Amino acid sequence: MTAELVIIGAGPAGMAAARIAADGGMRVTLLDEQDRVGGQIYRNVANATGRDWLGADYAKGADLVRRLDHPLIAYEPRAMVWRLDPQQGVIWSRDGQSHITHAPHLLIVTGAQERPVPFPGWTLPGVMPVGAAQILMKQSGMLPRDAILAGAGPLLYLVAAQMIAAGSPPQALVETGSDLLRALPRLPQAMPGAMTLVKGLGLIQRIRAAGIPRHHSATNFRAVQTDEGRITFSFTTRKGRQELECGLLLTHLGVIPHTHLTRSMGLEHEYDPAQQAWRPKLDALGQSSLDHVFVAGDGGGIGGADVARAQGALAALAILHRAGLMNRAERDARARPQQRALSRSLSVRPFLDAAYPVPPAFLAPPDDTIVCRCEEVTARTIREAAEDGAHGLRLMRTALRTGMGPCQGRMCEVTVIGLIAEATGCHPSTVGPGRVRTPVKPVTLVELAALGRQPEEPA
Length: 459
Description:
The chain has three domains: 5-113 and 256-326, FAD/NAD(P)-binding domain, CATH 3.50.50.60; 116-253, 3-Layer(bba) Sandwich (FAD/NAD(P)-binding domain), CATH 3.50.50; 364-430, Orthogonal Bundle (Arc Repressor Mutant, subunit A). It is built from 16 helices and 22 strands. The protein has helices at residues 12-23, 56-59, 61-66, 130-140, 154-165, 180-183, 194-209, 260-264, 305-322, 328-346, 349-355, 360-363, 379-387, 393-400, 413-424, 445-450, and strands spanning 5-8, 28-31, 73-76, 80-85, 89-94, 97-101, 105-108, 112-114, 127-129, 147-152, 172-175, 214-215, 219-225, 231-237, 240-246, 248-253, 255-257, 269-272, 277-280, 293-295, 370-372, 377-378. A five-stranded parallel beta sheet has the order 3-2-1-7-20, with helices on one face. Strands 9-16-10-11-12 form a five-stranded parallel beta sheet. It has a three-stranded antiparallel beta sheet with strand order 4-5-6. The longest helix is centred in the C-terminal third of the chain and has 19 residues, at 328-346. GO terms for molecular function: oxidoreductase activity.
């Protein structure tokens, strides 16, 4: 089957878009790195029987998975996309073999990544992001045990509630704090999405009912490893310096758009001051600065699963219209309910962004913090390089190789930007976004060489 639309990412946006496009008569190839569809939010939802503790919102993804059973949808699992090129097409690998897929339309729905939470000791064994722990919960049913959750944001409360429901409650929540006074003026705007706030309050109530200790307004995180391999986690609150010991420390400070693919294509991006991150410039239906390329879901700006689902549907309708398979009147009529759902779901975002700001200490952490995990570059070294004139990401890469390791800046770029901004007095929006070169994921020379000798493969 020759593709007319390639969708990169099988989360809520990608699944919703695939079915609508296929129903409209379009041949769709759906590429995803995982073994099964679902993305992060609905990861492994089709095989999660008996894990009711993941909650009703997680279970909603099963309907999207079922709807992918369509003769015009070709699903390619374990497909790692590492180059997008207007001439060459979508280049991806599976099991060490490279492939090229051409299509006149492209939808990128690669979702979000967790914002790095750098502090002294965050690279130790036993310290990991909350989202990584949730992946293990969904994918394998592995439950965090003897764990402390530290940071801020709705996901922190959700995972804590899931752990409680699964019979493996966290030791404690260590929260950097919320800024409700700054968020209150945005509360009226959030009323259409009030159910999201109600769900959040319900999660907090479950945590309180379980008697989980909560430490508020925590700063100055530090973790060290004991001789027994456990983690001693210290922090400062209004009560002074405190110290806890655990087997697992899970951290979280929200998520940011995953933009490596969109930046590698040269799409135009803009700085989102509320989320303190870069995102692609898109129109109301998800069209990017390249006419044939659309972006939906958290990769275009953080909104969550319901937002992603609506944006995926809108992008699919726009693509069908662009392909001549749907007239403008039908597109607009079918888009209206999706736009209402999108507006309702997005209404709460300004309130949440204001309520859970990223503490400045994590944007420019203490000197002894390892910032670039791949090259083991500390915050002090980055500050010194900035003082010596490395005032941009390219110059910092030249001087210190930050962002040139296997993660290609995913774990350090936002922090490097914060440190450069601190050292120069510039706003972070003037420092990035960094240029992303392909391959955007590590590949072997065999995969690269194979592109020169294989014929183009139809999807």
